[in-house]
Design brief:
By secondary structure, the chain is α+β, with helices and mostly antiparallel strands. Helix content is 38%, strand content 21%. It folds into 3 domains: 67 residues, no CATH class; 175 residues, Nucleotidyltransferase, domain 5, CATH 3.30.420.40; 63 residues, ATPase, substrate binding domain, subdomain 4 (Actin, Chain A, domain 4, Alpha-Beta Complex). The strands form 3 sheets. It has a 5-stranded mixed sheet, sandwiched between helices. The protein has a 3-stranded antiparallel sheet with strand order 2-1-3. Strands 7-8 form a two-stranded antiparallel ribbon. The structure holds adenosine-5'-diphosphate and magnesium ion.
Length: 315
């Protein structure tokens, strides 16, 4: 793995992950873990993820200023994949599309390991921006309207439904047809999935990913997003939601994200939950305590709870 790391990088780039795809022992390929095997020649095929040094430094600085320390940097969709993909899906071949605010992140798993990753510079915030411009309303209002009424497929909404939209100029509002709102949203969502399709075309034939596509992230919650994705990508699509959400719903700081009478929008938490699972699975602090059951995250939270309840006694 160390030898694989020796690749030329520009001064502005840094290595974030060196992921083993397969090991080859004396020409015998497809080995996941060569530990304990005999042989004379060991090769490894890796997937290396690099990032802009400046971005990484700024991110680390932000975290430090919040009074935390950074142990490791994890590529966002890699963390999300821990929370929303099953081992079977990764083994069969699956595409994870994490649609966030500013970016849409893609990872492709084949035979259990990552064979492709990409970050596209479009996401849910672009949709909100389009609505703000298209309906001449403030961005915050556009965001609310998108979450409350938005749909990625304009043909799914009725022609005769209207919504009230505040004008950018001030207190006045106007009536806008739901159809015209969705006609603003649809092309941007189409763009996102068309760009994803272009990336998938580079990966290879579609039968590499028989488990289809899993979409997650805040913008995947848009009504009709999965259906539009399935139509454009020509693969089965499901919404990826993390388990282990006890208590997390209380920390949503933006009430806009919760639709009235709706359950907790779990897909927003894929990365956060995935990071905890990643930490439990790969980080050094687990090596002391062997993980034996599936309730690791629950245990992790219990441990955190204990730590924090301990603080009360100090004050
Ligand atoms: N219920 C919803 N319907 C549609 N879009 C949503 C919904 N909830 C959140 N979003 C959008 O999701 C995006 C944020 O997603 P998130 O996964 O939190 O982003 P990031 O990973 O970039 O932090 C925003 O653009 C927001 O408008
Ligand atoms: Mg995200």
């Amino acid at each position: 793995m160390d030898a694989a790391k020796i690749i030329p990088l520009s001064a502005e780039e840094e290595m974030i992950h060196v992921l083993a795809r397969e090991f080859i022992v004396d020409g015998c390929a497809g080995i996941k873990d060569p530990l304990g095997m005999s042989g004379v020649r060991l090769e490894v095929e890796t997937h290396i993820i690099t990032g802009s040094s400046t971005s990484i430094q700024n991110l680390v600085k932000s975290v430090l200023r919040a009074g935390l320390t950074v142990d490791e940097i994890v590529l966002e969709p890699l963390a999300s994949s821990e929370a929303v993909l099953t081992a079977d899906e990764k083994e069969l071949g699956v595409v994870l599309v994490d649609i966030g605010g500013g970016t849409t992140d893609i990872v492709v798993f084949h035979e259990g390991s990552i064979c492709y990753s990409a970050v596209l510079p479009v996401g849910g915030n672009h949709v909100s921006n389009d609505i703000a411009v298209g309906l001449r309303t403030p961005i915050a209002e556009a965001e609310k309207i998108k979450i409350k009424h938005g749909c990625a497929l304009s043909r799914l909404v009725d022609d005769d439904e209207y919504i009230e939209v505040a004008l950018a100029s001030g207190k006045e509002s106007k009536k806008v047809s739901l159809k015209s709102l969705c006609e603003v949203i649809e092309p941007r969502m189409q763009e996102i999935f068309t760009l994803v399709k272009r990336e998938l075309d580079r990966v290879g034939p579609r039968d590499l990913t028989p488990a289809g596509v899993v979409i997650t992230g805040g913008a995947s919650l848009l009504t009709g997003a999965a259906q539009l994705a399935a139509e454009i990508l020509e693969l089965p699509v499901r919404l990826g939601e993390p388990g282990y959400l006890n208590g997390l719903s209380d920390v949503i700081d933006n009430p806009v994200y919760i639709k009235k009478d709706d359950t907790v929008p779990k897909a927003i938490f894929s990365t956060a939950v995935g990071l905890v699972e990643y930490g439990v699975r790969y980080h050094k602090f687990t090596s002391k305590k062997k993980v034996i059951n599936n309730d690791v995250v629950g245990n992790f939270y219990n441990r955190l709870k204990k730590i924090f309840s301990g603080f009360n006694e100090w004050f």
